[in-house]
User: What shape does this take?
Amino acid sequence: MLIKRPVNCNYTSTKVAAFDFDSCLVMDATFTWNSNRPIPIRPGVISKLRQLHNEKYRLVIFTNEKTIGNRTKLGPIENAIAKKTSRLDEFLRWLECPMEIFVATADDQYRKGNGVGMWQLLLEDCTKYHAPSSSSSSSSSSSSSSSSSSSSSALVTNVAPNLSECFFVGDAAGRGVPKAGGDHSDSDLVFAQSVNMAFYTETNYFPLASSAGASVFDLQRLGGKHMVVVLCGRPGSGKTLFAEAFRHQDEWDIVSQDELGTRPKCEEAVREALGAGRNCLVDRA
Ligand SMILES: [Mg+2]
Assistant: This one.
């Protein structure tokens, strides 16, 4: 197991919002990752997770990665760990709010689909785990560690989750036939059912973002405080649907000609947004 438990997670909350990682919070499965392109965070994920954190949910990732445990030599094991933890750290760097992370590295009771070992680890006292000293959860320098050594005074003892307030989101839900493009397994669904908490697929939980274009990464990642993005495309290609995914993000104003009526009104709305220091997404046919 690899475990990361940053300071300032909502450890005293009874509400747990838990997520699978590969093909859920990020669009790609592990084997397709390429360091030369941006991490394809699923659209809508960043804003939704920040919202949950602000609503005092305890954010958690439960992810299987037995490619680590399948290795037998030290070098390949270290490489497999680095590959996984670098992706997770990069995701947290963009998320900018803390998440607990549990990585099941072997085909044992901790692996989703086999048992609920990772959930039981969540219930353990978090003060026994090593934690980064920084209050920022997004520190990429912090290690994923299963160390049970020093405790941090900044951490507090876990509060037992109330299962009726907990849920898990994952893409391994047993949908369809694997060889025909269906889910590779039902391990996420089985995990949630075994813990006895609510389960959602990634497309159910992030519906607008999913239908707005699977290849579009989160615009939040482009950075900058005063950015204008103009959506282009043929009528019916999904521009408005894409824009809707950003309507409730604090940092973005949506400028829609369908709503405002004329080009001058759209231009004025863009000026207002930029004048207020906000990003602007222009949906104009
Ligand atoms: Mg997955």
